[in-house]
Design goal:
Oligomer: single chain
Helix content: 40-55%
Strand content: 5-15%
Structural class: alpha/beta
Number of helices: 15
Radius of gyration: 23 Å
Strand order of the largest sheet: 3-10-9-8-7-4-5-6
CATH superfamily of the largest domain: Type I PLP-dependent aspartate aminotransferase-like (Major domain)
Distance between the termini: 36 Å
CATH topology of the largest domain: Aspartate Aminotransferase, domain 2
Length: about 425
């Protein structure tokens, strides 16, 4: 039988898990809980100590107790990884990369290992500028989108968790990095504009968004919503942090924020997502007035990106290999997604927006899907909203062909 303080701790834990008390938010005081549970303050104090020991709450001197942000790394469980939204390495043309490396060492010898300038290899920057239609003079090479977000945190250091707005749901890596507190609901056309307007009445200075292929929902902003957000950025004086997640797999997305309002947009592009996770490479395009600050933050983070890989990627792009690679991947994405959608259609308790783009499907269930060791990502990893507990993200491109076939058969038995 549980003691009184253990029962109180379990009640508070349940409220945290249900989303009544969200990460970063203050919970009622010991005195308030003592009144609620009709007990003395020492009993509640012991419950708080247990919750702190379990890593659920933390004290802030002179302020009270707050729900802690999750600090665990989610790892795939079982043999079928439908959590990871990178490409499986067997889907990448490693033989071509091997040939490029051999060519680089043959032609450039030791110079192939020379470091790049802090902003990146100038030739690669020129190639990416032409391919993605972004200005080269404001580009900085990075080691993936996560480093881009980390540089945003370094440049905008003061109370960033209080001044940054996020979509709901959103990318868990951003929630953890920025200790996200402010959210705006998202539907199939983009953020709720009325809710966004109310949020902007405060001290919001940054808005993190994935407008082309959203993670986890796979939706893309409608043109009206995108234009409205760009106008808000101008009138309310905030920067849009545009995470260009898997835009290569959205056939028609219209102009990006970096095209509409470049002076208010911090554009982040990961090439690790479109190539393979082991190639840690990407780029940022930042407003002119922020360029020097981002370049300095990049320099103090890692001095220079991996020069050899940048030279390799330059040739990979120049010779048309990247385009060919994307075409092959696109065919696999379409085939696997169609097979999963056909399976989902046979389940009355599951619903999905079939216009989702990218490597995943965001699925809603009308019945609990909370068994242990599920092979997908739970909805609560992407949102603190209770409604997210009815959703899960199924990522389908991190398996080789044979494992995907077996994984599909496995899903057929558990969905």
């Amino acid at each position: 039988m549980k003691s009184r303080y253990q029962s109180i701790a379990q009640t508070i834990r349940s409220r945290i898990e249900r989303g009544e008390y969200r990460p970063g938010k203050k919970i009622p005081s010991i005195r308030q809980f003592a009144v609620e549970f009709d007990c003395n303050k020492l009993t509640v104090q012991r419950a708080f100590e247990q919750l702190k020991g379990d890593g659920l709450i933390e004290n802030r001197v002179g302020s009270g107790s707050y729900v802690r942000f999750p600090e665990t790394i989610k790892t795939p469980s079982g043999i079928f990884d439908f959590r990871t939204d990178y490409l499986n390495e067997t889907l990448f043309p490693y033989e071509q990369i091997q040939e490029i490396f051999n060519r680089l060492f043959r032609d450039e010898q030791a110079s192939a290992l020379a470091p790049t300038p802090a902003q990146g290899d100038p030739d690669l920057i020129r190639v990416l500028s032409q391919y993605y239609h972004v200005p080269s003079e404001r580009m900085v090479m990075i080691s993936g989108a996560q480093q881009g977000l980390d540089l945003v945190a370094k440049v905008f250091t003061a109370d960033i968790s209080q001044t940054m707005l996020f979509e709901d749901p959103t990318y868990p890596g951003a929630i953890s990095l920025f200790k996200a507190r402010h959210f705006v609901p998202l539907d199939e056309q983009g953020p709720d504009l009325k809710h966004l307007g109310r949020k902007l009445a405060g001290e919001i200075k940054l808005f993190y968004t994935m407008p082309t292929v959203h993670n986890p929902t796979g939706v893309g902003y409608g043109e009206h919503r995108k234009a409205a957000v760009a106008q808000y950025a101008q009138t309310h004086d905030f920067y849009i942090v545009e995470d260009d997640f898997l835009s290569e797999f959205r056939s028609s997305s219209g102009p990006r924020f970096v095209d509409i309002c470049p002076e208010r947009t911090i554009h982040i592009k990961s090439l690790s997502q479109t190539t393979v996770a082991g190639i840690r490479l990407g780029f940022m395009v930042v407003p002119e007035d922020l360029y020097d600050r981002f370049l300095y933050a990049k320099f103090t983070s890692d001095i220079a990106s991996f020069g050899l890989m940048q030279r390799c990627m330059r040739i990979f792009f120049q010779n048309g290999m990247y385009r060919e690679h994307l075409d092959r991947v696109s065919r696999t994405v379409v085939s696997r997604k169609q097979r999963l959608l056909r399976m989902i259609e046979t389940r009355d308790h599951l619903s999905v927006n079939q216009r989702q783009a990218g490597y995943s499907l965001w699925i809603r269930s009308s019945k609990p899907m909370d068994a242990d060791n599920v092979p997908w990502s739970r909805g609560e990893e992407f949102s603190f909203s209770p409604s997210a507990r009815h959703c899960f993200r199924l990522s389908f491109m991190n398996l080789d062909d044979q494992t995907f076939e077996r994984g599909l058969a496995y899903l057929d038995t558990i969905l």
